[in-house]
Structure formats: structure tokens, C-alpha cells
Amino acid sequence: MPRVSARDLPDLPKGQLPPHLELQRTRVLCAADAPTHTENIQYAGAYAMMGVDNSFRLDAFSKRFRVEVIKLTEDDMEFDMIGIDPAIANAFRRILIADVPTMAIEKVLIANNTSVVQDEVLAHRLGLIPIKVDPRLFEYMPENDTPNERNTIVFKLHVKCKKGDPRLTVKTDQLKWLPNGSELLIASENTASNPASKPKTYTSFTCSQDSLPEFSNNPITLKHNDIIISKLGPGQEIELEAHAVKGIGKTHAKWSPVSTAWYRMLPEVVLLEEVENEKAEELVKKCPVNVFDIEDVAKGKKRATVAQPRACTLCRECIRGEDWEKRVAVRRVKDHFIFTIESSGALPPDVLFTEAVKILEDKCERVFAELS
Amino acid sequence: MKRQPYCVSFRLSTKLKGDPLSEVLFSVFRVILKSEIPPRPLLFLSGASIKMEHGSLDDTKATFSLADEDHTLANSVRFALNQDPRVTFCGYSIPHPSDARVNIRVQTTGDPAKEVLKDAFQDLMGMCQHVRTTFDKAVVDFKTSEPVKAMNINP
């Protein structure tokens, strides 16, 4: 960036920053040694001297803000969020990872386990299995409450490897959903004295979950049927019941609805001067992710072009070596985020993001209500 | 050896006495040195999960202590506050990582800090609503346009 004396700057139209300041405000400049202008200028009066208002206006934000979906599949999503501050984008990311609830196995009642996997390790493994169910249909389980059909999902696992059989691999497809709740009986003293009373189990479901309208046509299943839980040798057996409850990723990562969620700023690659012939070919070769391309101009001349700036990983190979920084500028757009969400299976990624935004809204609402 | 940073700055300024720029700098130094941080008893209002610092004389400066919140909300609201022209200073801190609590400091040019903070939350809520509607619309647009793309009309 050439330094210009303030006296040599042209008179500015009001409400506009001089180009070099605008560049510093909106771009991270990735030089060969280090990135510069990485900070965001947030202070409302930062450009007051230039007649530029840097304060937040909701209508200006609404006008500028855009979302472009790049990819959307059952589990993955990539979209561009343009015109938003990293503070907010990061809040969404954090909420996606740690605050959006899902259902996960929390309690495991082990009736028999003679496998080589210890009880606690087995319970931990079961906890991490993603369950394909909409968590919004469930409530959080209050502390010291008996589980009911509104807050608990029960799965049963009973596998045995018979003597003489080859080793058995126990996979998640062996886990069976019990819509009527627990089948394990609580041992109590008065069962013998009062045989007429209904035997007590570890849950108290008032009705079967598959009779509920939301699950009748849509039974609760696991996201993947081929996760290995354990292996059984001849004569070994596992008999257990797993109780899944609602929770958030902040408590334990098993409740995190995303494998991961991340964002990166949009890379911007600019050729500061014409890069031609051998230099163009050198530039194309320099880039490991093929950002540059060569186009033929008249008279057998070749010229480098920036073909895929999005592919740029900011490795800065292209500006290494003498003089290359004068030809190529690598930047990042500060308010353009390429957001990626990988759902772990409970909800589709687009629903997850909407939920995350709602959660931030709820947080604000809560504090706002308490302040008034 | 004991360091004496204030002495250094005074010596520097006495040497440059008479020079107009240094005079200005010197007066700024004096202000900084003179302004003591007033004693601020951190008596919190009990009851609610949001606590406001008690004991400051005017309501243009306040520290709000939010329970069960973290960087997610605090950093977002700091951003919203920073872009408010009425705010002279704002910042947040998490006093201890094992306490689920953030302290948000707000100092304003004259408006009550509480009202400014409330406006910041309102701004954030407005932003969230707009993000949600824009996002939902973009997803619907994508889903409707996707079958057309898959048909591959112009291979």
C-alpha cells in the first residue's frame, strides 16, 4: 500500500472512505510475511472525521446482508453469508456446536456384559451413537424425575455369541427401539406380597411412543446401522438398555448436532499487473490448488487469469519469491463468510442453522426481558 | 531493581516544556495520572440472573453480570454496543472460566447504560430475525432451483 500524504488526497464525496482505507476496512491483506489489517473496525465514530458513519443501522444491514446456498445435501451444507460481522458469524458457529440440542444415550442399564469391553467404555461408546430423531419433539429431563415418553427414548441391546460360533461383531443395527419404555423390572420387596400390581420398570411411560402422531409413521432409528459397538467371542453376551435424553453440546460433545461447523472468509486473489507468457506459466505452476489459469490473447500471447479464487487456501505460494508480491495480491473479504455445516444426523443442516439463529434470539430475548 | 515508569514520563515532559505538542501531551498525561479509579463496591442486586453493579454514582456507566452466558452472547452484544454512537466504552470479561458468568461493561456519553444495552440486544434480535428470514428464503430458492440444475439442460 503506497503511503499518500493527506494533502494529496482528493476531496472526498461524503459518506465514502478513500480507497486505501476502504481496502483496509473490508479486506485482510495477506502479505508474504504476515496478514495485516486483520481487525474489524467496530467503533461507531471510527471514520467520523471523514464524514463516514460507522454505526450500526438495521436497515443498512438488511440491505447488505445476503445468503447464497452453495451446496445442500442430507447431512452437509455450504453457504455464503455476506455482510455480517465475525462476532455474529462466530456466535452462530458456537451455538451450532454447543447450544443446539439433540438426543443422545445418557444412561445405560447393563443387565449382563461378559464382553471384553468394560461397562463404562461400552456406555461411553453407546453415548456417541447419533440418533435420528427430531429433538424438538422432546423435553429436557428434569433432575431426579422418572423418565417418561416425553423426555426419554429407550433402546435395547441383547446379543449373544453362542459357544462354538465364530466371533460376532455387534453393530448399531442390533439396538432395538422400545417405544413402550424400559422392560427391566425394578426389584422390590413387595412384588411377592402384591402380585396383582403392575411390575415397576425404570421408566414410567403413560403411552407407547409409536402411538404418538409424530412417531407413528416415522419410527425412531439410529443414523448409522453399521457402527461397531463391540465384538463378542464365543460364550460372551451383552444385555443392556440404553436411555437417551435431550441435552446440549456444552454439557457433553455427544449432544452436539454437528460433526463440525466452521466458516472461512472468502479469498480474493487480484493480479496487480498483467502477468504474461513465461511468468504466467510460472504462476499457474506455483499454485497448488489451481487458482490461476492461462488465457490466450492475440498473437500467441498468454496471460494469467484468476480462475477459481474460492479454491485459494491462502498458502501464499504465489507471492513467494522476488517481486511476486508486486504482481499478485492475496486478500480475504472480511464480511463474506463461507459457512459449512456437517450435521451428525439428528436434523438436516439447514434446520440446524435456523435453530441456531433462534437460540441466539432467545438468549437476547431472555436478557432483554430481565433488563426491563 | 524497582522500575519507576511515572518518573520517566515526567522527566520527559519537563524537558520538552514550552513545546506546544508536548504541552498537550503533558496535560493528557496529567489527566491520566490524576484520574483515580473510583472505589466500586461490587455489591450485586440479588435475585435475578442478571446483576447490575451497585455503587456507581451515575447510571451512564455500569457493569452487567450475566449468569449462564459465555462468549457467544457477550461478544455479539459487545459488537452491537461498539457500533452504537452513544457508547464511549464497552467490553466484556469472563472473571473465571469455571464460573458460567460474563461481566459486560458499558459506558455511555450520557444515556443510561441499561437502556443502551437493551437497545443493543434489540438490534441483535432484529439482526437474527433478518438472518433467519433471508436464510430460509435462500434455502427455499436453492431447493426449488436444484431440480432444474439436475436436469442439466445445457450440458
Automatic annotation (TrEMBL), chain A:
PROSITE patterns recorded: RNA_POL_D_30KD (PS00446)
Localization, UniProt: Nucleus
CDD domains in UniProt: RNAP_I_II_AC40
Protein's GO biological process: DNA-templated transcription
Primary location group: nucleus
GO CC aspect terms: RNA polymerase I complex; RNA polymerase III complex
Domain DNA-directed RNA polymerase RpoA/D/Rpb3-type, residue spans: 76-370
Keywords: DNA-directed RNA polymerase, Nucleus, Transcription
GO MF term list: DNA binding; DNA-directed RNA polymerase activity; protein dimerization activity
UniProt cross-references to SUPFAM superfamilies, sorted A to Z: Insert subdomain of RNA polymerase alpha subunit, RBP11-like subunits of RNA polymerase
Family, per entry: Belongs to the archaeal Rpo3/eukaryotic RPB3 RNA polymerase subunit family.
Protein known as: DNA-directed RNA polymerases I and III subunit RPAC1
Protein source organism: Protea cynaroides
UniProtKB/TrEMBL annotation, chain B:
SUPFAM superfamilies the UniProt entry points to: RBP11-like subunits of RNA polymerase
DNA-directed RNA polymerase RBP11-like dimerisation domain sequence ranges: 62-133
Protein's GO biological process: transcription by RNA polymerase III; transcription elongation by RNA polymerase I
Location relative to the cell: Nucleus
GO cellular component: RNA polymerase I complex; RNA polymerase III complex
Keyword match Manganese: no
Pfam families for this protein: RNA_pol_L_2 (PF13656)
Molecular function terms from GO: DNA binding; DNA-directed RNA polymerase activity; protein dimerization activity
Domain of life: Eukaryota
Major location category of this protein: nucleus
Keyword line: DNA-directed RNA polymerase, Nucleus, Transcription
Annotated HAMAP family: RNApol_arch_Rpo11
Family to which the UniProt record says this protein belongs: Belongs to the archaeal Rpo11/eukaryotic RPB11/RPC19 RNA polymerase subunit family.
Official protein name in the record: DNA-directed RNA polymerases I and III subunit RPAC2
